[in-house]
User: Fold these one by one.
Assistant:
Number 1:
Amino acid sequence: MDVGAKGLAAASNAQDRDTRTGTRAYVRSLGKWVPVSLLVIWVALLPRIIPGTSSDRGIFVSVAERLLAGDTLYRDVWDNKDPLFYYSLALGRTISPYADILLELTWIVSAGTAVYVLARKLGCNAPGALFAAFGMTPLILTGGLYRPGYTHLPGTALVLLVLAATVSRRFAAAGFLLAILACLKLVMLPIALLLILTVITLRKEWRALVPGSAAFALCAAALAGLLYARGELFPYLQAQLANVSYSQGDLVDERWGSFVGHLMLVASIDAVVVATAVAGAIVWVFAENRLAGGTRPVERRSLMLWACAATALVAALVVLGFTGMWDHHGQVLYVPAILVGVGAVQRFQSGFNVRSKLHMAALVGLIVALSGPTAPLRYGGAALISGPRSLAALNDVSAEARAVLSVGPSGTYARLGANDDDGHAYGLRDWKLACPRFQQYAFDTAEVLNSVAECLPRAEVILLSPAAGPKDGDPTWNAYWAKVESTLRDGYACEKWQDERICTRRDGK
């Protein structure tokens, strides 16, 4: 070996020693910091994840309660979400309404577990992976776009679990989880599928499609069989057709075109900041690698992570462009946001040291950007106001339920109102729901609204929420409401009950 070669070898050994020394120092310093930071994060976010019973969340609670009362989903009680979401909610409520909190916590921990597996497989050391999984991930998931108890959190958790199983070469498990995702949050299925294809393509492991596809087919067939046995399969498929009509309906501003119109509907400040931060990080990483001219190539595992982040971002934007309707739908952006966060920890983990205030400030700033800039305000509001209020509401019998129970312990009832439901069905398991759609909207079709008007006479009691009533300039809705008022006038006696009206059939039958 010549002198030059010996010099290079010595320099390489010295660099290795420095790297090992730096890594040990990093593990020691960050190892002490991680448990403290995780404790602070979880204390802060616990009030944030308490699901309430207002707005759409009240509808979810009522559907779950009707399932526990023995109703058939999509036939006896109707809402447009996927069946496993309602089943999981109903399963927890067989024990207690407070199980809603445990369910939310379970999804966050599941997402964190998936991220830990991903981070370790893709090059993060143990402290960095731990922080990414159970510090950064919960903060992103409960950021400015998050709504406690809604469907996007379980959908995001399952997408991450599918990706973790694929990266770990557990292809049958990935296929199984993919089928679960299809029946729990169908619109996020394309994101998971594209992530699987990205990993398989980069690894050139096309044989993995065989066990994955077989597991998916078996699990999907079992779930379809369950729905069929319960009489819910064909009504569920009809509900999906209704979802397509709803997402392409009048709520989208056609001046922008359908795709851009959907994106405009979800373009809140949080969604824009999250998408910009994700896109900026991805472009910066690949641009830096290109400018390095091959001297600092992106490591293969790191390349896979950043490629998955880019795929997830494109897939999320496509999903929003076809289905996005409300600001909280932007939570699909949390999949690429979390992957970018893992990539940041993996790429710069040696700098995330408690002694390096600049790096720590950059990490905190990145997490805020990836979660949405309004997230800190929402944590404060949850701790002081919404958290305690939601906790009390979970086990509270709503005013609507008390109104129905004031008539008697059992019978048949219908509800007229929108998503101002406060979980009215909690406490009414001995009552039979006469009309499956206990929530009606001005964007519903005339056929749907007429079906509600026609079933009303079957109810002994009709409950009218504050949202029930005529609407100016809406002939379809007002024609429906005229039929409702005719039914109430001819066969029911109505009286005021707090903010609601309750109407009882005159013949008492």
Number 2:
Amino acid sequence: MDILYLLIPLAIILAGVATWAFFWSVKQGQFDDLESPAHRILFDDDDALIPDDARIKKDEGKDKHS
């Protein structure tokens, strides 16, 4: 029973720190843009990883898709 005198204030302090961290991150703008980081991986520059013989030339790509 004596452990409750330690655990209850410890839980309140931990909840207060978590609440402070949440409001601090909201104030800093951590939750402003939730879409861009998920789409950023799709637009990485991977041209250096494509072998030369597998590359589509820009002129050929326009003719095939037009």
Number 3:
Amino acid sequence: MTVTIRPAERTDIPYLVQWNAAMAWETEQKALDPVVLERGVTAVFDEPRRGFYLVAEHDGTPSGCLLVTYEWSDWRAGDFWWIQSVYVAAAARRAGVFRSLYANVEQRAREARAVGLRLYVETENARAQRTYAGLGMDRCHYFMYEAEFPAAS
């Protein structure tokens, strides 16, 4: 059983859309609009400044993904890389897929001289919190606030 990580390609968009929809449902019971979701995923490929996706293949089968976006830190004069839209297909869970994705992102971030990695996790998702802690991430002392605006047409 091998896990390989590669940059996502446009041909992966159907997987990325499917996995994002599944992740939103599994973690928040939130049904995403597939048209908006496909437009959002495609926009990352259209504008690389937004970030990039990585795809994990488990025994040659696309089995998971994550998105990296950037946050400039004026305090540190560098970018934090935010890990978002993490999903591992059910059949590949507990097989090291996320661990491999994380290791790849960490290596890329260090090579790019990012100042660190960040992610957010649902407060009730204890399994994910244990996973992130096990990879050496620390829970920070910030709360996250949000003001969501209606979608532009």
